[in-house]
Amino acid sequence: MDHTFPPLQLDPAILLEIIQVQTEIARCGLDLGQVINLVCQHSQQLARGCGAVVEIAEGSFMVYRAASGTAAGQLGMRIPLEGSLSGLCVTSNQSLVCHDALTDARVDKRACQAVGLRSMVVVPLSHGSQAVGVLKVIATEPGRFDARAIAILQLMSGVIAAAMYHASKYDIDQLYHQATHDAMTNLPNRAHYFDRLRSTLALAERQRHKVGILGVDMDGLKFINDTYGHRAGDAAIREIGQRLRQEVRQADLVARIGGDEFMVLLTDIGDQQQIEAKVEHLVQQACRSYHFEGNALPLSVSIGSAIYPDDGHHIETLTELADQAMYQRKKSRSKVAQD
């Protein structure tokens, strides 16, 4: 069966929305991670899917580097390049459609079940003449996509390709770095964090050791922005990221998740007492005095923690527990400040 489609004339309203996406992307500068996330979200809406994914080919795997809708919980998932529709899309450099994942021999059925999809459309993401990943939109029902969806995703993949070119004109390794790191802090981004978290938890399960997960939120960033300007606020975010990175081991990971939020992955932790001591140390180091352009900026963070497997086995559970603990600490600190 031929799963490709001839070119299609799109509705002007769709074209206008894609132009609006390009305008929004222009505000992202060279942060390829933000571009990928933005295109992913808009592609899902424009192609009328229930979820969307940007996968990057890394060695023998396709890695979920952006995910929206029903696929959002699978961010960081790895599927074998060989034996998957995404892998075939990369190796053939052609747009492909799966009308029913239950009967299509080209798909990775385990991955399809994990995401909960029955049909999908995938188009290649090209850097120069080389396909380096795919843009994919999925649906929970079979036969969801047609020539219209292919045409939309081909245009949206071109938007990502343009960002890839401007972010890294020649070096593919640099391109991967742009896609997996935050432009402001040069720390791993949200997608990289969840990729690493999945592999770290899988290793911890096999080797039977504990993993610490820390949720970090800056206190008072709005005050800094309002009082000293956004340049000072950006400098404060970079400083906090650098301080966190300096205070953990090389094997650990500090990632900027977005805005004033960070996550810290402690790859081998002893017990609750040890992780609490680490949290207090990080808070103390983050709160050290910092001057920017002659102004003393009040740096402070709230940190919550969760331990695998003591507090849970699933990424969603552990992340939620760390976030809840962090917000509880923030609430307590705010109450103390008011008293």
How do the helices and strands line up, and which of them pair or pack?
Layout: H1 12-26, H2 32-46, E1 51-58, E2 61-69, E3 78-80, H3 85-92, E4 96-98, H4 109-115, E5 119-127, E6 130-139, H5 147-167, H6 172-180, H7 190-207, E7 210-218, H8 221-228, H9 230-246, E8 253-258, E9 261-269, H10 272-286, E10 290-292, E11 295-297, E12 301-308, H11 315-338
Helix pairs in contact: 1-2, 2-5, 8-9
Pfam family, one: GAF_2
Protein name: Diguanylate cyclase
Domain GGDEF: 209-339
What would you say this structure looks like, in words?
- It comes from Duganella fentianensis.
- This is Diguanylate cyclase.
- InterPro entries: DGC-Regulatory_Protein, GAF, GAF-like_dom_sf, GGDEF_dom, Nucleotide_cyclase, Rev_trsase/Diguanyl_cyclase.
- It holds the Pfam family GAF_2.
- There is one protein chain.
- This protein is an alpha+beta fold.
- The chain folds into two domains: 12-180, Beta-Lactamase (2-Layer Sandwich); 190-338, Reverse transcriptase/Diguanylate cyclase domain (Alpha-Beta Plaits), CATH 3.30.70.270.
- The protein is 46% helix and 24% strand.
- It is built from eleven helices and twelve strands.
- The strands form three sheets. A six-stranded antiparallel sheet has the order 3-2-1-6-5-4, with helices on both faces.
Number of strands: 12
Strand order of the largest sheet: 3-2-1-6-5-4
Helix content: 40-55%
The CATH C-level class name of the largest domain: Alpha Beta
Strand content bin: 15-25%
CATH architecture of the largest domain: 2-Layer Sandwich
Number of domains: 2
Q: CATH H-level name of the largest domain... which superfamily?
A: GAF domain
Can you tell me the residue ranges where pLDDT is under 50 for at least 5 consecutive residues? 1-6
| Cα distance spanning the termini | 71 Å
Q: What gross morphology would you assign?
A: globular
Please state the CA-atom Rg, rounded to the nearest Å: 21 Å
At CATH level 3, the topology of the largest domain is Beta-Lactamase
The profile of the biggest β sheet is:
6 strands, antiparallel
For the residues shown, what is the average pLDDT?
Answer: 88
* Element pattern in H and E: HHEEEHEHEEHHHEHHEEHEEEH
Helix tally? 11
Structural class of the helix and strand makeup?
A: alpha+beta
Pfam families: GAF_2, GGDEF
Domain GGDEF: 209-339
Protein name: Diguanylate cyclase
Organism: Duganella fentianensis
